[in-house]
Design brief:
This is Lipoprotein. It comes from Mucilaginibacter glaciei. The protein is α+β, with helices and mostly antiparallel strands and about 230 residues long. It has 2 domains: about 55 residues; about 120 residues, no CATH class. It is built from 2 helices and 12 strands; from the N terminus they run H-E-E-H-E-E-E-E-E-E-E-E-E-E. Strand 4 and strand 5 form a beta hairpin. It is globular, with a radius of gyration of 31 Å. The N terminus is likely disordered.
């Protein structure tokens, strides 16, 4: 009888230890899940930071615009004469690169290196693609511009219009072209852009939907940093 009690007591102790081990194992699993959740949260935070950084890379132009008259805007064409030749696509001659575009559901514009067949996409946030590309008077930089033509842009895009500045460095081919800066407009759509000088541009803008009878406004803004 005494031996039987000892055996039963031993079994009870083993069962208690097993249950404690299971509880410890469950707790460990919960800890792992908790750690994984922390990792996911941190990952989301990192992604959010990246997105915020990307958003900050677009310089806002609305508050930097300076009003000019229609006469001043029209006079720009006679003031700025290009110092280099342009090819039939409107890009710089003798660079070995030309401008091309294609449209399917959305339109894409890109630079095409004639010798190698390499391409360089020119980004536009809008389905209609780029509205234009404009080489500076000194031919060492150019801007592209794109725009959404309705005031409800914020349902679909971060900006109503986007301007991108590129540098053309010494040499030939796509490798000498670098993207320098992006500029955004939230209050205006772009109808036309002109180089005012090699560091500033003039803009023909509107606020209404383009399908309506629009009233254009004219501005200048400095975009160059060197």
């Amino acid at each position: 009888m005494k031996n039987r009690c000892i055996v039963l007591l031993g079994l009870a102790l083993l069962l208690a230890c097993k249950r404690r081990g299971e509880q410890k194992s469950v707790a460990s699993k919960k800890d792992v899940i908790h750690v994984l959740n922390k990792v996911v949260i941190n990952s989301d935070s990192a992604t959010k930071i990246i997105h915020e950084k990307q958003e900050e890379e677009v310089d806002e132009l609305d508050n930097n615009l300076k009003i000019i008259s229609l006469a001043e805007y029209d006079a720009i064409d006679s003031l700025n004469k290009s110092r280099c030749g342009l090819d039939s696509s409107g890009f710089v001659k003798n660079l070995g690169v030309t401008l091309k575009s294609r449209c399917d559901q959305v339109c894409e514009t890109y630079l095409y290196e004639i010798k190698s067949g390499k391409t360089m996409p020119l980004p536009a946030d809008y389905d209609a693609g780029l509205l234009g590309l404009l080489v500076s008077p000194l031919c060492d930089r150019f801007v592209t511009y794109s725009s959404y033509d309705m005031p409800d842009y914020d349902k679909y895009y971060n900006h109503r219009a986007l301007i991108v500045l590129y540098y053309i460095n010494k040499g030939v081919g796509i490798k000498v072209i670098t993207e320098k800066m992006k500029f955004g407009l939230r209050k205006w759509s772009i109808n036309e852009v002109k180089w005012l000088d090699n560091k500033s541009i003039a803009l023909k803008l509107y606020q209404e939907a383009y399908s309506d009878k629009v009233k254009f406004a004219y501005f200048k803004v400095r975009i160059e940093t060197r």
